[in-house]
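agent: user wants the full assembly modeled, not chains individually. Plan: 1) parse entity lines 2) check alphabet per entity 3) run joint structure prediction 4) return tokens. Steps 1-2 passed, two entities, 577 residues total. Proceeding.
--- entities ---
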Amino acid sequence: MTPQLAIFFVLAAIAVIGALSLILQRHPIHSALSLIVVMIALAGLYLLMGSEFVAAVQIIVYGGAIMVLFVFVIMLLNAGVEERTNVSKLAGIAGIPLAVALLGFLAAAIARSNETAQAGFQSGGLANTKDISTMLFKDFVYPFELTSFLILVAILGAIVLAQRENS
Amino acid sequence: MISFLTSFLAAHATIIIYLVKIALLLFIVLTVNAYLTWFERKVVAHMQSRWGPHRVGPHGLLQPAADGLKFLLKEDPTPAGVDKFTYFLAPLMALALALTSIAIIPFGPEPLHIFGRDITLGIADLNIGILALFAITALSVYGVALAGWSSNSKYPLLGGLRSSAQMVSYELALTMSVVGVLLLAGSFNLRDIINAQAHHPERGILGWNIWPQILGFICFFVAAVAETNRVPFDLPEAESELVAGFHTEYASFKFAMFFIAEYTSMITVSCLCTIMFFGGWLSPFPASWTFTYYLPSVILIPAGLWVIWDGIRYETIFGRLVLPGIGTVLTVIGIALAVPQLQFVNAFIQGPFWLLAKIFVFLFVYVWMRGTLPRFRYDQLMSFGWKLLLPLSIANVVITAFAMLIWGPR
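--- prediction returned ---
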């Protein structure tokens, strides 16, 4: 086992345990903390693939900005421990088979595309800063600008919703 | 036995060098932290016509040691009803992240040659250096926010809420204000950013980023002070409103961890200001002025002599012994640096000397602000961050980009 593969398994284990803890924790803040662990483990995986820029942005945007907002809202609302209700019948009957089916599909897909997964794992400087910016600001500049326009509309919508009524 | 030891050292040299460097840097940073508290108390005291600490050791020089001992020995109660896990995690996170960020700072241009190996000054030379620092900054919000929340008490909760709102708001301006520097350097690496300011060695101070990026520097420094929760942005721990803010319920060493984290991030911010806007280890004088190489001696010898002169007249016998000792050491180092046979040491010391001198200036500015500026009101803080700082830093990006488009990269 190469050191890279060993690090991959450690990070993957951390991500999976974090995700499980996210679902199983009963306090919203603990769930949010677990999600941060998942984000950071993912950043570590990106780093392992040689895309440092994506790893750093993953931590800055997801680990930092977005999750801080989550934590902030939970703190502001002072959300307490969530109550456990009996799982609804529908979730038991439909949910578990569907989840198993999804897992099977994903496993089959990953098993079939073994070579591409290996290639992605090995590839080095594919995703460095310059390549990403060339892609964003040259090749895909119109979709990129369109997305930012969409986000702007969402921000305006949030402001309109949050604004106090003028009396 | 000895042959085994040498072979072991040779086989694992890279790892051992890194471990030694990390241990050394931690030791230096923690010591500097301790004396930064002494320096801050002394300077603020003199600004307010007081003496500051002067009981423990000559001129209060042993006060940090006494404080450290007190932090270790005090009772450490855990308040009832706290969220145990998060309550213990928060100070750990704050300290670990603050100390990690120091690892990315390069401290000198030339590697040190010892035992046939090149040892660079600085631990991690990342090619995403500045982004990695921002990633650490982004995570360091949690230390404060979680401490406030987990304490199960109203003032810490208010402090935690304030801090997360404040840090999220100022992080945007902080990140945007650096983009100008990155455009000029064309790299995220801190060494590259410094080297980009050294294109014209004859210009000295005029070649630094502070001149084209003065707007960016102002935005960066203000936002960075807000990120470190220092005066005038110390709302998360405002004593007169929130008792002690987010760390009200922390005592003993857990409080000390927040304390060390705050001072360490002050040092990091000073390092970053120096590296990105003030030329890092570059000398402010043109490269042809070789006589400026003697400046470390010119500063050290009079400082050492002054400490000796001050020491022999000190009240206590302990002071009369220790202060002249320190003075003698300083003077001897100063003289040694001026000796022609030791010029290779002097040449090596130039880079770190200028870097540390500039960092010291920024640390003084931090203390100076604490001594003179009143705290912002909360609504002022928010409107300042969003309505002034963020547009200014975006304007800086646009101006820099256009300037580079017209005149081309340097």
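agent: reporting back. The helical segments of chain A are 3-24, 28-48, 52-77, 89-112, 114-122, 129-139, 141-162. DSSP finds seven helices and no strands in chain A.
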